[in-house]
Automatic annotation (TrEMBL):
Residues 1-32, 104-126 are annotated as: Disordered. This is GCK domain protein. Transmembrane segments: none annotated. Residues 33-107 form the GCK domain.
Length: 126
């Protein structure tokens, strides 16, 4: 009688992977034409906050409303959530931080340029 070495049983799991696999799109999340960023955002812990933000952005665009005014609260909630899940959203947060830093640099440059180009009359009127 021959015996085979004990091999661990393969256990099937219903658990979803932590990150979406690029070669196996998640059918539940996938919508025709949905952007990669949207899929990424929905795969993390801020899915609901992102969906709320996305819906607000679409509504503002459809109704020709001011996005910043209309969606400031949902944007703040999304950012809070992303910060709370920064281990997953780190690349997006760093990109946002870099863009913000660049905007500040550009504003300072414009401010310096406008000060240098101001006429003596304008500078005395301030």
């Amino acid at each position: 009688m021959s015996t085979t070495p004990n091999q661990p049983e393969k256990v099937q799991s219903d658990a979803k992977p932590a990150y979406p696999s690029p070669d196996q799109p998640n059918k539940e999340e996938e919508e025709e034409g949905e952007c990669g960023l949207c899929l990424y955002m929905k795969a993390g812990g801020c899915k609901d906050a992102f969906i709320d933000w996305d819906n607000c952005a679409k509504e503002a665009e459809d109704k020709n409303e001011d996005f910043v005014e209309k969606c400031s609260q949902v944007t703040a909630r999304l950012m809070q959530c992303m910060n709370a899940h920064s281990n997953y959203y780190y690349p997006i947060l760093m990109s946002e931080k870099h863009a913000e830093e660049q905007a500040v640099i550009e504003l300072e440059k414009e401010k310096q340029d406008s000060s240098a180009n101001a006429s003596p009359y304008e500078s005395n009127q301030k």
